[in-house]
Specification:
Distance between the termini: 50 Å
Number of domains: 2
Helix content: 25-40%
Number of helices: 11
Order of helices and strands: HEHHEEEEEHHHEHEHHHH
CATH architecture of the largest domain: 2-Layer Sandwich
Number of strands: 8
CATH topology of the largest domain: Nucleotidyltransferase, domain 5
CATH class of the largest domain: Alpha Beta
Shape: globular
CATH superfamily of the largest domain: Ribonuclease H-like superfamily/Ribonuclease H
């Protein structure tokens, strides 16, 4: 006789949003229980749990409700049915918390082998260090008539919605944009995310995994390296190459793919 399935239990002490998300990746949660968990959450924004639930949706967490159970949509969405948003930014420094900002933002929406939309904008800035101008070929003259950062961020948030956020070296792009959202009271990023460096390390054999190395290895014919839209487009093509090498019998849903990108299945280089 099989033993009953063990229920995933969250400890009541010091409950955080990450604890709730960890459970959602394993199983749906009854709606009233979910609201109670949000109420107990130590890092909540609102005291009202229903407002907190709405805030999660606004910030891009792909939650849905079926039969009075809350579930993470990426646990049930097949990869071919998922909309992915490939993002790249150029900035004038390391972090918004240090006073730096985005100077260009580019993104490509992709679903089931097709690019379905794109986003591209320069951003007004008063300063660009010379070395960044040299690397990106973005000058202050180019930014004089560009829209202000808050406007670009609002438009990008609407463009992104709750799609899976994909970037090459995702920690930088994701955190920089999320911090920028917070600076302008636009919430923060809670979108599910994939790093194409991590995914490539598990699907493509290469001596290095930087964007330029993979671009050359895979014969990707996209010009204007270090410009946001074109780097986002290159990232999308790398992602597409990665998908060709996954085990589609085991990796079926978007959440399967996210888990795989963080797994121990790193390819050993023979180069």
């Amino acid at each position: 006789m099989k033993s009953p399935k063990k229920k995933y239990v969250i400890k009541a002490s010091k409950l955080t949003f990450i604890d709730i998300l960890r459970r959602l990746k394993k199983e749906p949660i009854e709606f009233s229980e979910f609201l109670k968990l949000l109420e107990e959450c130590s890092d909540k924004f609102y005291e009202n749990s229903e407002l907190e639930f709405e805030l999660l949706l606004i910030n891009g967490l792909p939650l849905d409700i079926k039969d009075n159970f809350v579930f993470l949509r990426t646990t049930k969405t097949n990869i071919s049915e998922q909309s992915f948003c490939f993002v790249d930014i150029e900035t004038n420094g390391g972090s918004p918390k240090q006073g730096f900002q985005i100077i260009e933002l580019g993104a490509v929406k992709y679903k089931n082998g097709q690019i379905i939309d794109k986003f591209e904008s320069l951003v007004f800035a008063k300063e660009i260090p010379p070395y960044i101008q040299e690397v990106t070929n973005i000058t202050l003259d180019m930014l004089k008539t560009a829209p202000r950062l808050e406007k670009v961020l609002r438009e990008f948030k609407e463009f992104l919605k709750d799609d899976v956020f994909v970037a090459h070296d995702i920690k930088f792009d994701y955190n920089f944009i999320s911090d920028s959202f917070e600076k302008y009271n636009l919430g923060k990023l809670l979108n599910r995310k994939i790093c194409t460096i991590d995914l490539a390390k598990r699907t493509i054999q290469s001596p290095k995994y930087g964007l330029s190395t993979l671009k050359e290895l895979l014969n990707i014919d996209v010009e204007n390296h270090h410009r946001a839209y074109y780097d986002a487009l290159t990232t999308q093509i790398i992602f597409e190459n990665c998908l060709k090498n996954i085990d589609k019998e085991k990796i079926k849903t978007t959440e399967d793919l996210i888990a795989f990108s963080k797994s121990n299945n790193i390819i050993k280089s023979n180069i």
